[in-house]
Write a structure and sequence with these properties.
By secondary structure, the chain is an alpha/beta fold. The protein has helices at about 5-10, 35-45, 65-75, 90-95, 100-105, 130-135, 145-165, 170-180, 190-200, 210-215, 220-230, 235-245, 250-255, 255-260, 290-300, and strands spanning about 15, 25, 30-35, 55-60, 120, 140-145, 205-210. The structure holds adenosine-3'-5'-diphosphate. This is Sulfotransferase. InterPro entries: P-loop_NTPase, Sulfotransferase_dom. Pfam families: Sulfotransfer_1.
Length: about 300
């Protein structure tokens, strides 16, 4: 294992939100839980991309689950019929495996057996992707979200896990402080976003940069854009509507597979990936002072990038 205990010993360390989550280690500017970092380091040097691969990348709680449903749905779409809809039987996590989880389970996985085009997901920052990913022609879909809603969603998600493990909820104020300092798994959030944004400007044919709010505002237009980017254009309106319905928050939240059970790899309840699915829920949780503080960090971090969040 490349990242030995002595390597961790020299890294900056912080407690992660909630007792059951362990500690975060800072590696090349980003924060990782120890098992994630070991796997990420292995994946960085060993993950071999294929030109046909599709990688879904995001920070936590930016609407990844929506894309975890949309991407496999579009890639395997055969027309409006519930036959062969894998979303009925599988949580979206199972349809698009996580690179970090793969390397957590096996530091030398054989991924050649996965049929092409292979679909993967990751919360790793762009700088932690393998050179093979960076230099191949594989496509990357990145999704981001208003940092205030992202933070609120993350806080609820961590608390849902704490409840499952009969722990106290993590105080909102402390969590907010950590988020503002960028101390959360795969954080800092803003640095993560800016890295992918800049790469998407350099290589728009390889990296599609999406925003949760735009998907909410113009789902048809955004899904058509996504499908065309993936090389599977949806021409008929009836198909666009069907894909959107299949992957809708309301439908997925009510499917039995998403209401029961826990993802054994990460210990989060399947249901905790579906909460409210709204834009602007931060207003129910953050004070005006908190809003202004986080907005200011966002403005500073994104200054000059041409990106607006
Ligand atoms: P909220 O906590 O604000 O409700 P991620 O998938 O990156 O973990 O992000 C989770 C957020 O996406 C949650 O936001 C969740 O409710 C929302 N979400 C999950 N599935 C969705 C879907 N199909 N459509 C819209 N939002 C969805």
């Amino acid at each position: 294992m490349e990242a030995s205990k002595s390597v961790f010993g020299g890294l900056a360390r912080e407690r992660c939100w909630g007792d059951s989550n362990g500690e975060l280690y800072q590696w090349q500017g980003f924060w990782y839980l120890q098992p994630h970092l070991e796997a990420a380091i292995a994946a960085k040097s060993r993950f071999q991309a294929h030109d046909e691969d599709i990688l879904l990348a995001s920070s936590m709680k930016t609407g990844t689950t929506w894309l975890k449903a949309l991407i496999p749905c579009i890639m395997n779409y055969k027309g409006p019929s519930e036959d062969n809809d894998p979303l009925i039987k599988h949580h979206p996590n199972a349809l698009i495996p996580s690179i970090v989880q793969i390397f957590q389970e096996d530091l030398n996985p054989d991924l050649s057996i996965i049929p092409s085009p292979r679909l993967f997901r990751t919360h790793l920052p762009f700088s932690m992707l393998s050179d093979s990913i960076k230099n191949s022609a594989c496509k990357i879909v990145y999704i981001t979200r208003d940092p205030k809603d992202t933070f609120v969603s993350l806080w609820h998600f961590m608390n849902a896990k704490a409840r499952l493990e009969e722990e106290e909820a993590y105080p909102l104020n402390e969590a907010f402080e950590s988020f503002c300092k960028g101390i959360h798994p795969f954080g800092p959030f803003h640095d993560h976003v800016v890295q992918y944004w800049k790469e998407s400007l350099k290589k728009p044919e390889r990296i599609l940069f999406l925003k949760y709010e735009e998907l909410k505002r113009d789902p048809k237009g955004q899904v058509q854009k996504l499908a065309s980017f993936l090389g599977r254009p949806l021409v008929e309106e009836v198909d666009v509507d069907d894909v959107l319905w299949r992957c809708s928050f309301e439908r997925l939240k009510d499917l039995e597979v998403n209401k029961v059970g826990v993802d054994p790899r990460v210990g989060f309840a399947h249901s905790s990936y579906y909460r409210r699915g709204l834009v602007g829920d931060w207003k129910n949780h953050l004070t005006m002072e908190m809003k202004e503080r986080l907005d200011k960090i966002t403005r500073t971090k994104l200054e000059g990038s041409g990106l607006d969040l």
